[in-house]
Amino acid sequence: MTTRRASFTEPLSQERYMSSPEYSELRCISGTAVAARAALLTDPKEKALLFFIQEMSRRPGGLKKLVADLLAMSAARVGTPLMRKLGTKPGTIYQSEDVKAVRRELEGTIVSDWDDNVDPDDGNTACRFNIEHDLIYCGNFPLPGEYNPPDWPRIRWNPAATMAEYKEQAAGSVAEWVAENKARKAMAAKNPRCYPAAAFADALREPLTIEIEEHLVESCINPACSLGVKNFWALQEALFQFKARHEEAARASIAQTAVTLAVRRTLARGLRTRKIVVVNGEEGLG
Predict the structure, then answer these.
(1) Structure pTM?
(2) Contact 71, 209 (CB under 8 A)
(3) What is the largest CA-CA distance in the chain?
C-alpha cells in the first residue's frame, strides 16, 4: 500500500492533495531534467530552444498558453499530410472524395456489423436489420445520406407479462426505432456535399493542442524524442520562429538607453565566452 495516501479521517493537512493530477498539470518542466537533456545536444540553437520551452512552462498559463499562441501564429501548419497536399489556404474547399480521405486520416469510418438482409423500414421484428454500410457514419463531416442510426431497442423480458403483452411492447419499440431511423435518414439527405479545409483544421485544433503540449514535455526530458508531431508541419521550425518573435517583442518592450545597451553587450559577452561578467554602475541610473 502506498504511503502517500492519507485517510480522510485523519486531521486535514494542506499538502494532502498536492499529488492530484490537476496540480501536476500546472507544474513546470523540471529544469534539472532539461539541463541533462540539453547536455546531449551539440547545436546551441536547439539547446536554447529547450531552455526556452522550459522557461515558458514556468510562466502564467504554462505550456497551454505557449501551445495556444503557437497554433494562433502558425495556423497554416495545422493539417494532416493529405490536407497539406490538398491545400489549407482560406477558401479551399474539399469535395466529397477528398472529405472521405481526410476523414480516414482524422478518425476512420464507423460501419455497421449487422449481417441480416431485412429492410430497416419495413417494420419487420423477426430479425435484426442490415443498413447499407456505406451510409453508416458516426463521425464529423457527414456527407449526403450518411447518418448514425439509433440503437436497436433492447426489451427486457418480464416473467409476469403475457406473450401478447411482450409482443405488443416489442412492436411499439420497433415502431419508434423505425420512425427515428426514417427521421435521421431524412436529415442526412440534407448533409453538405463538400466542406471547407478550415473546418477540418478547427476540428484538429483541440486534440492537437493536447498532443503538442505532451510532446513538448517529452522532447525536453527524453533523449530519444525529437520535436515533431503528425498533424502539425515542421514543429521545430515553428518553435524557432515563435521564440524569435517572443525575443523581438521582449527587446521592443525595453527602452533603448546607453545603460540597457551596455548591459546587453556585457551579458552577450558572458554568454559567448561562458565566463562570469560584472555589470557595475551607479545607483539611480536605470
Answers:
(1) 0.69
(2) yes
(3) 101
